[in-house]
User: Which sequence fits this backbone?
């Protein structure tokens, strides 16, 4: 190190790989000049140097993923014009192949969505596929999907060009400087300390340390679930006649990508059963390092990889490379401000896509730091989505082997991870399993997805994009909710007690709706940011004058808690207690719900005595518990918040008392189909931080005139003042009962593409696939246009006539809920 470290910087970035340099570059583009990058060894010395440099879209299933990807591709293609340093980007093209009907269907579903977001992917014939990749045996291929603008770049060149661009913008980059400590005071990051004792104070600290990030974060009490794994690619000797412009080929059936490399062929593996590397800690001195290949373990995977290019079997091997790449438990990056420390940001866990997604992620994080709000939907990548469970050594050990194969293989819409399961189980788990529950997983919760007639039948025979073997069982659950009564275990819902002198002030400041209500009132509300974008949608129940219960979905647990804690004023007194582990939430819904509840309780459960959106403590059998008359399925019913030690007794009592009323267990598939028939919204799935309640059709829960206002009030007032929105969330029902909706399907109005579906399910009561999505038009999207327009939804390349509605197609007058 020849240059003296500064003693202060506006932002200090830890890590000089692709992500760190991208973040620095994009910060300077936003006008932040006082940026310092600290690299422990040399730029790219961690994992960047050995990356394959693929700039290919894959299958992108969200608008945010598309934005992150396209920004990076466009930047790397043009960065040399700015810096004078090549990134090595070449648009050789990208070819994905499908050798079975399910894969073809999946690609046909997603290709139109990707085209909508600037990715020129289109289907080609098997003959055209073989012509583009003549070195391969593609005789089993049914279709190819090709993006001519995609390609490859040189990872080292990319990073060096970014570093130069960052320096041109004012950033300073130091190599050979190892950060030993993130300094903090009163819950706020204040700077860093190096191994030789030097300190740099800073307004922002950014962890971009790649696979070292977990242990660096842990030293500051920051939870970053991240695990390195062995990652292989093989490079053959020269292949005669192999073109440098050979497109990158991706084959999920062999878990391999193929591309040209120095006249030879590279076979890159994302094999099932991968090997985690260094579970305890990544060595500090591991630079430009390799791992000794395990030929015995990787041999069968190489054999499968070679089956796609058998003509290269007799060509010598130039190199079998094994190097570490870091992966997260759900294969999405860790990005954003950490919940443990204010002003401490992170961008890591790129899941072997650090070059591909580095630029887009760096741009998102730069805006997050400078503007205080991310510019795209970050619900799926926000670092606050995990608990400490996922960072334990045992969890990383068990989940790690599944991640590479899961990332690269063929997928279906309802697949869960198979490893590191049973982390969070309801007290009713064994009961439900014995009654035929099939469990899926969400944020480490075991969720009863659907119920089979017997436990032995509770398995998926074959994953598919069409009706699976459980479809009719789920239909029976759905009909029971509409015609009789169901019991659902909703214990995964996050529950927080918010108490103290200033609890009402905090809840009021966060909530768009009025929550300064009488005790016993349940209030549905959105929380939004300063721009009016969603931060949560949830219920806030006033239990006592200074005591509230906040209930929100499991996917928003960490974000909701962080938002509450971050908005307690310096002079305010509020305590927040996560009571989720102690409460088993049992939902009882359906036309017979009141009759069932009255059989087990002496409380007056009539509509007059226990009205909709109210809460009371009632008796159920021997037990006292909180009951809330709310619904997320569109039927009469209650949420019962049962202390966990009483949960099994209450459940048994309900099932026994309701036997002659047709009571049935119901799972998450039924929750989805019921709530979508009623067009209920769900943050993190249907709406995100880039959407607002007005356009999402939740304006009824926005009280602009409430005393004291709320965060985002002015932004929502401005949106409402513009009159009928041009973008509105609508409900759709396919007129053909055969196709299914899952999300991402394009929406057409009068033969013009106007949006896409956020989520879908089969509406067994409405008689077809149903879902919700945003439609955007040039003029205000009026009720008349919605009702009289010709609507279609594209499913796997076929447009299906659809009915669109601003109001719920099921029970728009809420008569069934309020009876």
Assistant:
């Amino acid at each position: 190190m020849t240059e003296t470290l500064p003693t202060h910087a506006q932002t200090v970035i830890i890590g000089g790989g692709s992500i760190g340099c991208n973040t620095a570059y994009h910060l300077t583009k936003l006008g932040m000049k006082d940026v310092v990058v600290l690299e422990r060894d040399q730029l790219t010395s961690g994992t960047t140097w050995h990356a394959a440099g693929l700039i290919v879209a894959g299958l992108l299933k969200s608008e945010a993923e598309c934005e992150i990807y396209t920004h990076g591709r466009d930047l790397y293609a043009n960065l040399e014009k700015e810096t004078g340093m090549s990134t090595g980007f070449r648009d050789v093209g990208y070819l994905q192949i499908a050798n079975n009907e399910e894969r073809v269907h999946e690609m046909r579903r997603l290709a139109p969505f990707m085209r909508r977001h600037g990715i020129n992917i289109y289907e080609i014939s098997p003959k055209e596929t073989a012509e583009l990749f003549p070195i391969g045996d593609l005789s089993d291929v049914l279709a190819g999907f090709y993006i001519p603008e995609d390609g490859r770049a040189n990872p080292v060149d990319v990073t060096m060009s970014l570093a130069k661009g960052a320096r041109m913008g004012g950033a300073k980059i130091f190599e050979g400087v190892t950060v030993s400590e993130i300094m903090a005071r009163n819950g706020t990051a204040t700077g860093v300390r190096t191994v030789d004792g030097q300190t740099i104070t800073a307004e922002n600290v950014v962890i971009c340390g790649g696979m070292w990030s977990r242990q660096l974060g842990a030293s500051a009490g920051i939870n970053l679930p991240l695990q390195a794994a062995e990652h292989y690619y093989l490079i053959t000797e020269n292949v005669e006649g192999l073109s440098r412009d050979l497109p990158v080929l991706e084959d999920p059936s062999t878990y391999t990508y193929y591309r040209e490399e120095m006249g030879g062929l590279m076979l890159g593996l994302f094999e099932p059963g991968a090997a985690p590397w260094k579970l305890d800690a990544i060595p500090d001195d591991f630079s430009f390092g390799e791992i000794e290949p395990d030929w015995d373990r990787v041999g069968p995977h190489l054999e499968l990889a070679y089956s796609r290019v058998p003509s290269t079997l007799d060509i010598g091997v130039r190199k079998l490379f094994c190097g570490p790449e870091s992966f997260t438990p759900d294969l999405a990056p860790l990005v954003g401000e950490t919940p443990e420390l204010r002003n401490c940001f992170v961008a890591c866990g790129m899941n072997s896509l650090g070059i591909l997604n580095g630029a887009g992620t760096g741009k998102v994080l730069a805006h997050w730091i400078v503007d205080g709000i991310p510019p795209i939907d970050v619900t799926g990548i926000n670092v606050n989505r995990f608990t400490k469970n996922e960072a334990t050594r045992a969890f990383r050990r068990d989940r790690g082997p599944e991640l590479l194969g899961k990332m690269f293989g063929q997928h279906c819409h309802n697949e869960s991870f198979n490893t590191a399961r049973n982390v969070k189980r309801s007290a009713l788990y064994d009961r439900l399993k014995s009654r035929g529950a099939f469990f899926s997983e969400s944020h480490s919760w075991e969720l009863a997805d659907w119920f089979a007639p017997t436990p032995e039948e509770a398995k998926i025979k074959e994953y598919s994009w069409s009706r699976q073997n459980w479809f009719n069982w789920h239909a029976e659950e759905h009909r029971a909710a509409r015609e009789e009564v169901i019991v659902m275990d909703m214990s995964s819902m996050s529950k927080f007690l918010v108490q103290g002198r200033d609890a009402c002030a905090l809840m009021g400041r966060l909530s768009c709706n009025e929550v300064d209500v009488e005790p016993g009132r349940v209030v549905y509300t959105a929380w939004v940011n300063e721009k009016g974008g969603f931060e949560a949608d949830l219920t806030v129940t006033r239990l006592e004058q200074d005591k509230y219960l906040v209930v929100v979905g499991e996917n928003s647990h960490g974000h909701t808690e962080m938002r509450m804690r971050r908005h307690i004023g310096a002079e305010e007194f509020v305590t927040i207690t996560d009571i989720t582990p102690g409460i088993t939430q049992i939902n009882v819904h359906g036309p017979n719900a009141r009759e069932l509840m009255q059989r087990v309780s002496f409380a007056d459960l009539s509509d007059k005595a226990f009205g909709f959106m109210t809460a009371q403590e009632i008796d159920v059998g021997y037990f006292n518990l909180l009951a809330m008359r709310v619904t997320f399925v569109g039927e009469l019913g209650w949420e019962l918040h049962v202390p966990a030690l009483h949960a099994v007794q209450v459940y048994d009592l309900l099932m026994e008392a309701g036997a002659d009323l047709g009571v049935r267990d119901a799972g998450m598939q039924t929750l989805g189909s019921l709530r979508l028939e009623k067009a209920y919204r769900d943050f993190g799935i249907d709406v995100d931080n880039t959407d607002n309640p007005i356009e999402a059709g939740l304006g009824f829960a926005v009280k602009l005139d409430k005393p004291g206002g709320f965060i985002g009030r002015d932004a929502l007032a401005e949106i409402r003042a513009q009159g009928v929105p041009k973008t509105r969330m609508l409900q759709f029902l396919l007129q053909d009962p055969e196709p299914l909706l899952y999300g991402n399907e394009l929406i057409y109005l009068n033969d013009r593409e106007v949006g896409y579906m956020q989520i879908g399910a089969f509406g067994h009561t409405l008689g077809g696939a149903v879902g919700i999505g945003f439609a955007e038009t040039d003029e205000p999207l009026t009720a008349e246009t919605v009702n009289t327009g010709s609507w279609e939804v594209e499913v796997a390349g076929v447009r299906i006539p659809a009915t669109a509605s601003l109001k719920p197609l099921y029970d728009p007058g809420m008569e069934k809920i309020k009876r």
The chain has a mean pLDDT of 97.
